[in-house]
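User: ok so my PI wants both of these folded by tonight, can you help

Assistant: No problem, let's get them done. Here's the first:
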Amino acid sequence: MEAKQTVYVNTFTDGVLDPGKAMEYKVKDGGHIIANTTPGCWGPMITPALKGGHEVTKPVYVEGAEAGDAVVIHIQTIEVTSTATASGNDQPVKGRFTGDPFVDGKCPNCGTKNPDTYIEGIGQQAIRCRICGEDVTPFVFTNAYTMAFDEQKELGLTLPREAAEKVAHDAKHYMQTPEESIQNPVVTFAPHDLVGAVARLRPFLGQLGTTPSRPIPDSHNAGDFGQFLIDAPHDFGLTADELEERTDGHMDINRVREGAVIICPVKVEGGGVYVGDMHAMQGNGEIAGHTTDVSGIVTLKVDVLKGVNLEGPVLLPVEEDLPYLAKPFSEKEKQQALKLAEKWQVEQLEDSYPVSFIGTGADLNAATENGLERAARAFGIDVPEVMNRSTITGSIDVGRHPGVVTVTFLTPVHYLEKIKIDTLVKDHYKR
């Protein structure tokens, strides 16, 4: 397969990131990926034929990327195409899955595993087994809403019953579901528990990363949701050690947005870059478990870093999103620091730039420990030093509850040189 300067991706996985499947797209080192992404969580969650809780793009082979390298992904543009969506808290439905409602849905009547479905009417009983006609959705809402966006995609408004039902009757139109997607649009449920709430849009990518070295359901490609796979009774069950083969592409960190850069570990030949689960907005933590999943158009630029063996993703947020203590110093601040150094006879000041290490784990404590350890091993320093630096020049921030965090701190340039990202980081923050 010949690598292209730009690849256009509009096909999707069945919910599983499988390194054993041949990659259908190949992009040059330094090339671009343009993708039409499907909505994330809720649509796939009510489509039991999907086996991962999401419906991400098929992975892209990046020319020159080998295991032990890293792929730099520049998020150049994110455009929301949906004009409405729906979301809310979830509740699994007993009898409609075997061990994990995200992965192994089944029909409670005929017993078909991961059954194909069709939509009959609207509401939470509308998803039906194609074989026997039974209600098969593995999840229902506890408290939920339908939200419409303005034409500028700057604001969202939650809708009353009549408006929500209007959206539900023309679901794929309002969701702008891509043609190759098989998910059932979540607006079909027409939820309307919240009415008249106004929210600002700030779209970002809940899924962005590289393919793990073993088959993993896409929404479980992280240290928190991945816990559901440990000793699971379905085809994708694994051990705690095998979970370390994940690449943490499912981050739900709201700073993974237009203008940011994410540096991803490569664990299979070609890297296998995939994207999806675009959200219209989300506060830190995604505490409701879900937010406003939307369709969209994404433009990414990818570069290979040879021999940069990372344990997990490293994020370079846009400067506006950095914690106050981690923002690059202004010229005025640098002059102040020089005067202070002269007063106290400090011969050399650190030249430093902000970096965020992603940590994931079973809970926020485990995720924090994971992020601290990843940073320490990357730079060849000890964890207490990372703790000190992230305390006085950075922050620990929740990406997703229960177990995704960012460990951010101002990092000396000579540390960045160790993992060959010094020029990348300098250019990003001088831009």
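One down. Here's the second:
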Amino acid sequence: MKKTIWTLSALAAALVLAGCSTARPPAEVHLELPNQYREQANLDGAWKLAAPADDKDRGAWWTVYGNEELNRLVVAATESNQNLAIALARVKDARAAAGVVDADRGVQADVGFGPTRSGNAQGASTTYRAPLSFSYEVDLFGRLSDASRAAQLDAQGQEAAYRSVLLALQSDVAQLYFTIRSLDSEIDVLRKTIALRQEALDLAQRRYDAGDTSELDVAQARTEWATTSAELEGVTRERAQRDHALALLLGRAPAEFSLAAAPFNAPIVTVPAGLPSDLLERRPDIAQAQRQLAAASARIGAAKAAFFPRLLLTGSAGYESDELRDLFKWSSRSWLLGPLVGTMLSMPILDGGRNRANLARADAGYEATVANYRQQILVGFQDVEDNLAALRTLDRQMVFEEQAINSAQLAARLADSRYRNGSASYFEVIDAQRSNLASQRARIRSAGQRAVASVGLIRALGGGWQTEPHGELQTGQATPVALARNP
């Protein structure tokens, strides 16, 4: 009797002790967030606020660019990309793993059948058994519930990782598409320039043959023609590599896919940046880090609970008989409650430091996930600020480049006219043509970079968004690249 009272007292003391010792660290970390993005303060106020949750459908955000070919490419990549398929398989695996861990919280039952041979000095006998056994662990200190919660959070983290891969895939396709179209326009202007260089070379050759100029002009004209032709090959090579990369995103071999050339033409898209606090809800990678943090917190609770008693309820029922033919008769039924071997209530005393080491690992894992969570948020802020700065400066840069194109084209026309009239040297023509080509190519690249940056901002903000009532994403006029030909 005294032993029983002592045991119950020890259990009661353990229960009281566990009430505070199994406490977990917070699953969320308080962060000091800025009121607005630094670069957003430099904008014209056209940005609208938005705050969708990370698990909301992002929608077909790429359709804002109004390009049917881009729409088809994004859909095709979503259906066939192998990295996305891997991410989806990891989600399924994490969900299944969570189911395995959660199964420990339920009743475990097994059914069996088999003979048992036993004997003594009087002889041997065979007993046939068909038992149904069950067991159930009472979750006294939350070890099983914490482990299940951690596994569920891991599965949610993998779902966020899948959304992150999906968003990255969609934005990569859009950015590659705009980059290829920018290179197409650059190739077009280089080909037109090469045609002009050929005309200039023919003119210089005719004037040299007529004795109106020196061979130096012919050599200079040929040099310019060859240099521009070499630049065309370089841009063509870059375009081919981007085309191969796009094929890979679509889940196809480069030999099976080729994007036909077309001029660059993208609208000016104004993306709603929202508030910095919205970023924590929108970006799937930050959502994944937050779920990893919560899972690490739950694992600490499970590791602490391992120090305390475990209560396992077991039992069995079935049939038992010395004769196989009598096994399933009602008179052969049998049952047993309680463990056959061991104890129902167990508590670790000596484990070689295993539980303490597991708790130390859980604490270290939590510290790492806290740092990772903070780092992901900082990276998210950087991504937004970088793309806001890119859009702001590229918009201004393109205005100056448009002015440079107009001036360079005028200078090229004047220099060409003066050369044809014999009032200017060919060096003046070459210098003007070089400036014209450089200005046009710079304008093309900036327009492409502007489109890529707008996609980058959408990706940095976590994909799609919800606008205010009656609000719409703002777009400007398309940005075709003007490629004027010198007269």
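The mean pLDDT is 77. The first strand starts at residue 108 and ends at 111. Good luck tonight!
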